[in-house]
Amino acid sequence: MTVQSIMPAHDGPGGKESGRNPGRSSLLRADLLVPAIRESFRKLDPRVMWHNPVMFVVEIVSTLTTILLLRDLATGAPHIGFAIQINLWLWFTVLFANFAEAVAEGRGKAQAASLRRARTDATGKRLLPTDTGKWSYAGVYEEVPAPELQPGDVVLVEAGDFMPSDGEVIDGVASIDESAITGESAPVVRESGGDRSAVTGGTRVLSDWIIVRITAAQGSTFLDRMIGLVEGAQRQKTPNEIALNILLAGLTLVFIFAIATIPSFAAYAGGQIPVLVLVALFVTLIPTTIGALLSSIGIAGMDRLIRFNVLAMSGRAVEAAGDVDTLLLDKTGTITIGNRQASDFLPVPGVTEQELADAAQLASLADETPEGRSIVVLAKERFNIRAREMAQAGMQFVPFTAQTRMSGVDIGERCIRKGAVDSVLAYLGNPADASAQAAIANADTVGRAGGTPLAVVDDDRLLGIVALKDVVKGGIRERFAELRRMGIRTVMITGDNPLTAAAIAAESGVDDFLAQATPEAKLALIRKEQAEGKLVAMCGDGTNDAPALAQADVGVAMNTGTMAAREAGNMVDLDSDPTKLIEIVGIGKQLLMTRGALTTFSIANDVAKYFAIIPAMFIGFYPQLSALNVMRLGTPQSAILSAIIFNALIIIFLIPLSLTGVRYRPVGAAALLRRNLLAFGVGGVVAPFVGIKLIDLLVNALGIA
Amino acid sequence: MTITGWTLIAAFLVATVLLTPVAGNAMTRVMGASMGAVGRFFRPLEAGLYRLAGIDAAREQSWWGYALAMLVFKLVCFLVVYSFLRLQAHLPLNPLGLGSLTPDLAYNTAISFMTNTNWQSYAGETTMSYLSQMAALTVQNFTSAAAGIAIAFAVFRGFARGSAKTIGNFWVDLTRITLYVLVPGSVVLALFLVWQGVPQTFSNSIAVTTLEGAHQTIAVGPVASQEAIKMLGTNGGGFFNTNSAHPFENPTPLTNFIEMLAIFVIGGGLTSAFGRMVGDRRQGWAVFSVMAALFVVGVAVTYWAEGHANPAFAALGVDPGLGNMEGKETRFGIAASSLFATVTTDASCGAVNAMHESFLPLGGMVPLVNMMLGEVIFGGVGSGMYGFLLFAVVSVFIAGLMVGRTPEYLGKKIEAREIKMTMLGILVPPMMILTMTAIAIVVAPGTSAMSASGPHGFTEVLYEYTSAGANNGSAFSGLTANSFWNITLGITMMIGRFFVIIPALALAGSLAAKKTVAPSVGTFPTHGGLFIGLVIGVILIVGGLTFLPALALGPIVEHLAMGAGTLY
């Protein structure tokens, strides 16, 4: 199997991966079943079982009844067939629980195995510093096995080489195949400086070369962590799981008392109850269903994220995702399609629109940014002005610099410039004439409408304004409405001025915005939300995002981002798609819902089990109690057997649900609760009545009890 | 069952609903020290008391500081009552010259009154001097009730506060509740009872010659003052052995109605106070609704069960239309007795106006189940509310995940520590009750005290330990208490009280320290019908199911046997 087939690229922004239940068909694949069955037996080791208090208790009482069974076999006690069957089903209960966990882990193990193949034992070309203490492509290197590389070492990676470890590009630029990590076959560019400098061990350079400073020791690389995560080796109980385990342990404890006191009550009434029956009642009453499935629910939740090409560094992060109250979304790429497009030419009085368009096009001919290209296209559309060749008429391109904040073209003596309005006005010496006032007025109008104004100047003559417009993504308004119904507030983060930001916020339907956002402002916003008791999720890729990513409750770092960002976040999106934040929240909620649904179901089941076993247990000395046998179960033995069989089989029956999760719909908490409470609460009370009755009919038909 | 009977029950429910916000408002204002003119009058007295005791009223306590103060106070209460009872013979106000109590009885009684249980292993009129009744027992009626209410407010503060280290000052809470709620309420109620004919005197028993010429000694004493706080503070310890069935404790149908209302008024009012404290009155009404629903079901079952005649009597020709009048007062009848039995066991009061032992099996099972559920249906003053909140926390924890968020209640995340404390508070009393019952019914000192055999005898024992564990104090009667019972019931009462209070305070401390999470439409709603239904389900399943085997072997099998003509 190929790596790509295990980690399918998700179906693009707006995809509903979480609702689609990916890979349902592969849920219980045959090639995973056999190892899982083997694993179920291996997990019987008390040192392993101990981590699951409920099932550990079941294992202890099953051992006890088995010892009693062996004694009875030796002495030839009556009802031995019944005793054997109860014993078998008690052990099945434990094994089924182990199986559920093994199946969930198995899926991760298969993925981990293919990831391991990507971890090469390649050697690294360790560069020796030149005399000046720098490194260069022409420098001397020595071949070193990857495991011997230390953080801080500098290596040269050339076309065809595998990256020996994680690192930061310090020189050069190269195209890299990252499919081993992301499943995405299109190569990506990595270069020194900026936010695309991180490289990951196990990826392969396709062309050119880069010099990389190693940042991770062997065994703690990104790939190693990823393997650990999908394998579940680093899995620790999340805070909610710990709390739930306490609840389950408490319920188990109280049932120990409830059952242990029965022999005394029976003795008073002149009866005697076999230990086997007490054990059967005990095991059916303690919350074995959720106890058995709890860890597989957690593993499956992480797994769903991985299938969605998002790596959660801890289960805690997945839980936090479900709790998120505020989503901080970058405007560009998430709310608007990445590029702004020219939408209007707004000349100053005395200049024709065509004149402005012509100059603007000339100024943009060499501008390869999407904005620049869109000006060329708009001029052609409106006035059929053809793009001219740069070479003609001695044109010389003047690139954008951070100082001038303008770009343009020099044609001989003629200088055409376009740029931010204030920069262009400053370039003209801040005139106060009618043209300048008209341009400023137009610029304000554009800004208020959510656009970006660019002023165009031909020599010292101000021609007018080109309006660039942000294009809001289709369907994003509905997504925000959906999030509002989930109780999540969205905040748009943008570097735009407040006017522009407000207009885009209004158009996209986002709840709030942070304009002219600096890393500090972002961090302050997160802290403010958190002070109000809210959980905040954000995504980011730059090094300057790192503090905010670390502060956020859910920080999703883009895989294309810097190493600092990846270290700071608690999730990494391998597809580097900021829209995914919305789906990640859905997956978190799905995990929590599944856990709650099965807990409720498990506890609600107890009612029916009591009604099955209590009459069966006491009928020997109080025949009147057969009135409590509301299910009209055949015999006391068949009633007890049916209850214990139901209790074991329901685990197997619910494994698929624990792996795929209860479906989350963004309908608000009250509606969700109503639906789930009906399905798993009321359903949990009713289902075992039906199930136990059916099993009892079968048991009696087969005559095995 | 009659229309009049159902009307009485409906009228009682309506009166409770009407009184709830009034009592809630009053208590919230008292605890928040915003009392207007009344406050200006009493404040110097309150301040004087603090000065006298050397208490800095402005300094609040952490949860363990609060718990420690409560425990010290309880220890002192125990020692004082124990000394009074042991030295009774040598103390004044003892016109009958009653002797001192035995150590085990004094120990049992001291614990019983200190824990607001008021289980009585003795007949009041022939055991306790007036001084013991007034200075030892009635004082405990006030302080045990005040301590319960104080703790409820401390727990409310845990929910209401965010990022706080303290949950109030125990001494201040205790003083304010006593001074502004219990004392004025009891004075008014006592005067009403005196008007209705309840005695309030220091004079000796009255010897009379009846119309038939027989000589009778009629016990009297300072009854009205003790009766008032016995109801208002859900204590339930009667002046007379027959408790509120005695005509001097509960002379008329009107006193009966008012006494029942007095049992519910503080418990009901605390639901409203809770809503006010957490800033959302709907939360309080949701809690009230859960309690009211369980109450209505209970009283309906009891009334229905008692409205039927014992088939064995019907077979003898007794008019079955009368229902089961055995053990009931004719001045109250079936409805008022069924209602009283439900109210007193819902509310951890334990006063009785009829003999629960003589109820038909299912009628007697309702009071038993009410107590088994942990006394959370209005419950004891204060204890009902903090006990209920433990169930609310568990409900939110179990089902809250189903909305796709980690569980939170009133903006507080419910995590491992909260669950640990909650489970402790919910599960320890049932474990204690079951274990004690299992021991008592197989050892000789236990069984020798039983008056009935078979399932009815079993129910007697189960009822006593449940009543003690739930701090109710009502007796199924029939048991002849001996030192075995005095000692084991004493232990059960203490565990039933303090193993709920301490976890509840710890929960409050940990909740207070948490940030309050802002609510949104994605938050688990805890004020609507869904939540009400959910909590009822959790109370019945988590709180009640553990007792099902015991119930099957007691009242249920007895009921089934009665249908078949066997009586125990």
From TrEMBL, chain B:
Q: What is its main location?
A: membrane
Question: Mind telling me which residue stretches traverse the membrane in this protein?
Answer: 63-84, 134-156, 177-195, 257-278, 285-305, 376-403, 424-444, 484-508, 529-552
Q: Does the record bear Chaperone in its keywords?
A: no
Membrane-protein topology: Multi-pass membrane protein
Q: Which InterPro entries match?
A: KdpA
Q: Pfam family example for this protein?
A: KdpA
| One Gene Ontology cellular component annotation held by this UniProt entry | plasma membrane
Protein's cellular compartments? Cell membrane
- Signal sequence bounds: none
Keywords attached to this Swiss-Prot or TrEMBL record, sorted alphabetically, are: Cell membrane, Ion transport, Membrane, Potassium, Potassium transport, Transmembrane, Transmembrane helix, Transport
Question: Superkingdom, according to UniProt?
Answer: Bacteria
- Give GO MF terms, alphabetically: P-type potassium transmembrane transporter activity; potassium ion binding
* Entry's family note: Belongs to the KdpA family.
Q: What does this protein do?
A: Part of the high-affinity ATP-driven potassium transport (or Kdp) system, which catalyzes the hydrolysis of ATP coupled with the electrogenic transport of potassium into the cytoplasm. This subunit binds the extracellular potassium ions and delivers the ions to the membrane domain of KdpB through an intramembrane tunnel.
Q: Share what the entry says about its subunit structure, partners included.
A: The system is composed of three essential subunits: KdpA, KdpB and KdpC.
Name this protein carries in UniProt = Potassium-transporting ATPase potassium-binding subunit
Organism name? Acidomonas methanolica NBRC 104435
